[in-house]
Amino acid sequence: MIGMTVGIDDFVGGLKGIREFHPRKVFDYIKTHPVEPQTLKPYLLFSRASYTRNLIFKNETFELLAICWEVGQASRIHNHREQQCWMMVPMGKLKNQNYRVAARDPKTMSCRLEPSTELLITPAAPLEVDPKEPVHQVLNLAEWNERAVSLHIYSRPFNSCEVYFLDKGTYCDVPLHYTSEYGQQVPGEPGERPD
Question: Is residue 65 part of a domain?
């Protein structure tokens, strides 16, 4: 059941109040506490070059990002370093495509992936990344012709992930960067605020 929308500061306060960051507790919380889009304005930076990663809050237990997607943008296929992840979409909608790792060789950094489930993430339907199939891709399909903003909660914070290349059958480690931190753009990172 969806509750009334809350401001982003109250949403963060509620997350901080979850004593044991158990997956079910977090997912129940985000399902019943949709975020009011207007309160995200300080964290909305878009770039035509790539989706942007905008840090809202971070402590030892979790970090919360606003990820801004222009029309047609998609993440690479990636994992979350065995961290838990929840996604909600206060603006627009996104497709989440999961992949099954059918084969993986750390010596040669080669792999074989098979597409598995796909789900739509909307304001009424948040998503918990499946710990049994954590390799996935997030897409803002061009045919929808609209920007999207997603909120990602990661427990615990991490600064790199594995990225997978279907066409080459390989994977590699990739460092992660923020476009903005706490509403301030990181120098050298592309991004523009909406009007």
Answer: yes
Instruction: Write out the chain's pLDDT in tens, 195 residues.
Output: 456 899 999 999 999 999 888 889 999 999 999 999 999 999 999 999 999 999 999 999 999 999 999 999 999 999 987 789 999 999 999 999 999 999 999 999 999 999 999 999 999 999 999 888 899 999 999 999 999 999 999 998 888 999 999 999 999 999 999 999 999 999 987 777 765
CA dist 43 and 186 (Å) reads 12
- The CATH number of residue 23's host domain is 2.60.120.10
C-alpha–C-alpha distance, residues 125 and 34, integer Å: 10
What are all long-range contacts of 102-109, with beta carbons under 8 Å and residues at least 24 apart? Answer: 104/171, 109/170, 109/171, 109/172
Domain that holds residue 117: 8-185
For the whole model, what pTM was predicted?
0.94
Structural tokens at position 86: 């929840």
